TrEMBL record:
Protein family according to the UniProt entry: Belongs to the purine-cytosine permease (2.A.39) family.
Region (Disordered): 1-20, 443-464
Domain of life: Bacteria
Membrane topology: Multi-pass membrane protein
Protein name: Cytosine permease
Protein localization: Membrane
């Protein structure tokens, strides 16, 4: 594998604007993070007021026991998806956009995957930033656009420097958030009987189990599909399981079920004021920081998708730090002028397109195994295969069919329906030999004239 020529060319750029974070290569094993650093990253994704609100919304329409069943169903579905895809990302040290080149989509197909993921995640970054700005404006005053700009700039600045600093931010925010929330909830529930709240009937209109499970599993399915963005920094497969399962337990069983109790208590899904009103200015700050910690992953994942998209389509190797600046500015400005909230329906549509990607990845990597051999051959050397399939037309057909099932079939959980359809179709057609790659592409470097560098030629993201 050719690696030395590229190393000198990329080093100066990497030092000038943040970290490239192995956007187009494997994460070397000696640059991966320890168990506790990664655990805090996972737990940080569980810490948000929106999860309490989801729990309260379900609690208004379900008994405590039924809500527990709904959260269990949602958590099991998500954990299976996260572990199956995340373990592949950990083994290969690759993010989802790059992983798809050898797991069912080929080089050109990975560009389509990257585009869908990038647009979806940067869109949700803008939407979340708008919600962030509106919330701060309502709590402390000042125009919403100003807070959108402040939040957007701060998150962009964090993501520019990559995973290492995002992990450091998680170490600070995660304990503060859950400590503050625990104090608020204990103070609120101290004067009420927990057993009575658990046995009380739902105060609102009944919510069917399938609808509740859809809200729980479907709401985080996109995050599950792009879990390799995080797990590629894990050292062991057991770490992926324990950390993701811990995140599921915390977010669904603790945060979500406490939200159910709060919903029964106030007989409304609007429970954010409980946490905010009992925590003071410090609590408000911590809650807002935790929201920013979740939104930084939207921008980070989008930047990785754009880098892969540009290399495939335009044969131009972009630095992830530069891409982050552009995406962060665009998302921030659009959120500041209030445009992003008009695109939530479109972003929800993209959300149905993403689960089939996970189904195809899992089917190819763990069951069919027709295209992953180049990854197996280069894994120990921590380099990338010199070639990848150019097109896999049948995978695109499966993707479209699975999307239609998720979008137009009314039964079950749409995100799960589309994911399962893609998985089963790919397994069946792949094992029958009907999923065939067409053409072979050489992995390109920045100028498109030579093989991509080995993983170690990329800018370091930080030691474990």
């Amino acid at each position: 594998m050719a690696s030395a020529p590229q190393a000198d060319a990329t080093a100066p750029e990497a030092k000038s604007i943040g970290s490239d974070d192995y956007s187009l290569s494997r994460v070397p094993r000696d640059k991966r993070f320890g168990f506790w650093s990664m655990l805090l990253q996972w737990l940080a994704q569980s810490g948000s007021i929106s999860q309490f609100t989801l729990g309260a919304t379900i609690g208004v329409g379900m008994t405590f026991g039924d809500a527990f069943l709904a959260f269990t169903l949602g958590a099991v579905i998500l954990e299976i998806v996260i572990f199956a895809i995340g373990l592949a990302g950990m083994r290969e040290g690759l993010a989802t956009p790059m992983l798809t080149r050898w797991t069912g989509f080929g080089r050109n197909g990975s560009a389509l995957v990257s585009f869908v993921i990038a647009v979806s995640l940067v869109g949700w970054f803008g939407v979340q930033n708008t919600i962030f700005g509106n919330s701060v404006s309502a709590l402390v005053g000042g125009p919403s656009w100003m807070w959108c700009v402040i939040a957007g700039v701060a998150i962009t600045g964090l993501v520019i420097f990559g995973f290492k600093y995002m992990a450091l931010f998680a170490k600070i925010v995660t304990p503060l958030f859950f400590g503050m929330v625990a104090w608020s909830i204990i103070t609120t529930l101290n004067d009420h009987s927990i057993s009575e709240l658990m046995s009380s009937p739902p105060p609102g209109e009944a919510i069917p189990l399938a609808v509740a499970a859809t809200a729980i599993a479907g709401g985080y399915m996109t995050g599950a599909i792009v879990s390799p963005e995080m797990t590629r920094y894990n050292k062991k497969g057991s770490h992926v399981f324990v950390q993701s399962a811990s995140s599921m337990i915390l977010s669904e069983y603790i945060v979500g079920m406490v939200g159910v109790l709060l919903g029964h208590l106030v007989k409304s899904s609007d429970v954010s004021h409980i946490v905010l009103s009992t925590s003071g200015a410090f609590g408000v700050m911590v809650v807002l920081m935790s929201t920013a910690k979740i939104n930084d992953w939207n921008l980070y994942g989008s930047s990785l998708g754009v880098v892969n998209f540009f290399q495939v389509v335009f044969r131009k190797r972009l630095h992830r730090g530069v891409v982050t600046v552009v995406l962060g500015i665009a998302g921030t400005l659009l959120s500041a002028v209030g445009i992003m909230t008009h695109f939530t329906e479109f972003l929800s549509l993209l959300g149905v397109m993403i689960p089939p990607i996970g189904g195809i990845i899992v089917a190819e990597y763990w069951v069919v195994k027709r295209m992953r051999k180049p990854l197996d051959d280069t894994r120990e050397a921590e380099t990338l295969p010199l070639t990848s399939p150019t097109w896999v037309p049948m995978s695109l057909v499966i993707w479209v069919v699975a999307f239609c099932v998720g979008k137009f079939y009314d039964g079950g959980i749409p995100a799960l329906n589309s994911l399962a359809t893609a998985f089963l179709l790919y397994c069946a057609l792949g094992l029958l030999g009907w999923v065939k790659p067409y053409g072979t592409s050489t992995l390109d470097d920045e100028d498109g004239s030579s093989p991509a560098p080995a993983a170690r030629a990329t800018t370091p993201a930080g030691a474990a």
